[in-house]
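Quick one, tokens below. Sequence please?
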């Protein structure tokens, strides 16, 4: 299936950390979109996994994403798939991974490539990833696309998870994108 199916997807939130976010180009939009994805995932029962790169130096995940209680992996590897325990955090029955995070050209890119190498279907949310420089983000998107990662927007992902206007969550999800 080419569209995102909420019953086959896990949302991966990569390194939205307190000391990193002030340097990210367009950080407020990236954070808002990541928040929309997390909110929708909770409504749909889509599992969410969070990573934090060297939290002692970069701090915890930003509070506005409200990730308390979500499985969180502290890591030193830029590629989260190389971190001990990462694959164990992903539900085995969900081959599709929807990725949001920072920095697009470092941890997001390397993790996406690792997930693809691990046999996952990966979709990157272009308006919910960020880098310090716009050209770094765009180059990362180009590279991920070249390795067969799907590139989507927040709105695309949410409407694909819905599938139909008859879904009982339609109104709640519609409010998230206004």
């Amino acid at each position: 299936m080419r569209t995102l199916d909420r019953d086959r997807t896990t949302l991966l939130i990569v390194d939205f950390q307190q000391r990193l976010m002030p340097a990210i180009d367009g950080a407020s939009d990236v954070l808002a979109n990541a928040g929309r994805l997390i909110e929708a995932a909770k409504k749909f029962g889509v599992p969410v996994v969070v990573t934090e790169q060297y939290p002692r130096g970069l701090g915890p995940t930003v509070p506005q994403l409200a990730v308390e209680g979500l499985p969180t992996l502290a890591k030193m590897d830029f590629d989260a798939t190389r971190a001990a325990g990462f694959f164990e955090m992903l539900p085995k029955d969900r081959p599709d991974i929807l990725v949001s995070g920072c920095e697009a050209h470092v941890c997001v890119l390397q993790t996406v490539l690792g997930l693809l190498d691990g046999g996952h279907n990966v979709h990157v949310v272009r308006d919910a990833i960020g880098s310090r420089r716009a050209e770094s983000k765009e180059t990362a998107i180009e590279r991920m696309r070249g390795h067969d990662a799907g590139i989507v927007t927040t709105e695309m992902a949410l409407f694909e998870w819905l599938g139909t206007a008859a879904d009982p969550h339609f109104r709640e999800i519609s409010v998230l994108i206004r």
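The first strand starts at residue 9 and ends at 14. The helical segments are 27-44, 55-58, 86-89, 104-117, 134-146, 154-162, 170-176.
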